[in-house]
What does this fold into?
Amino acid sequence: MTESIKSKIRTVPHWPKEGIMFRDITTLLKDPEGFKETIDLLFKRYKDKKIDKVIGIESRGFIFGAPLAYLLGCGFVPIRKPGKLPAECESEEYTLEYGTDKIEIHKDAITKGDKILIVDDLIATAGTASAARNLVKKLGGELVECAFIVELIDLKGRDKLKGENIYSVVEFEG
Amino acid sequence: MTESIKSKIRTVPHWPKEGIMFRDITTLLKDPEGFKETIDLLFKRYKDKKIDKVIGIESRGFIFGAPLAYLLGCGFVPIRKPGKLPAECESEEYTLEYGTDKIEIHKDAITKGDKILIVDDLIATAGTASAARNLVKKLGGELVECAFIVELIDLKGRDKLKGENIYSVVEFEG
It folds into this structure.
């Protein structure tokens, strides 16, 4: 089933730089059957998990996380780049290839004990996802799983999220 | 009906700067009934319009546009800030209070004659929305309507989109 999803993801070679094979989900999104199949697969996996909040990571995580929150009948919470959320935030730094970056969540977005599902389009080295996991824990959320559309398995992002449940729809070598 | 949606949008005074009353939709999103009510309202409005693609404008437009595309059974297309889309793009500049900004869309995202719905969270002066409209026209799309959650009516964004159909779920003075 996920082979048909994988076949709709376009690979753009050498983007954003030489040597990177960029996995472009926009070709999946614009395909009505492909988009629906992806969301339905996630819904089927999580519909009995009593999720309280789906967290989408800016900005491609919003595209999959928001329809899923709608179908699950739960709330949607954005995790965003610094300076985008207007109320009081918890923030978390993470390491990039060169330097660091930061993500933020509203402090009142999670109630202690909320069952949380984190959604993003891609897991590579899992820098962003592990920072998101830390934000959920800081606010007292119970992380049920981290779900991704694409996993770049050679980059071993799962190692950085050891102890957490991880799910990805399709895998690419790197 | 939309009063209950409006009541769930938080106003953050003086953000991001003195004098601005920021209308924060995150309080609506995290409320399961509020989020569902908003999406259902949009779905009811567009379900018989034979929309081919919902375009969401980065990044809050993704949160409303993606669930709507799912429900309508059509494709979802992101319009993004420059440098985020990996394949060949059409781009459009627009004017800000100081200086200019730019948005992009993949050239292959729209097929000539596609019936298009543009979705964003907010219409203020409509700089982004009118640039998005221009991108749709450049690619030969037929713009059915522009839908927003919040309209800041004092900023007269509708004037800049004259000739297009505009819908907003809730209105604030400014």
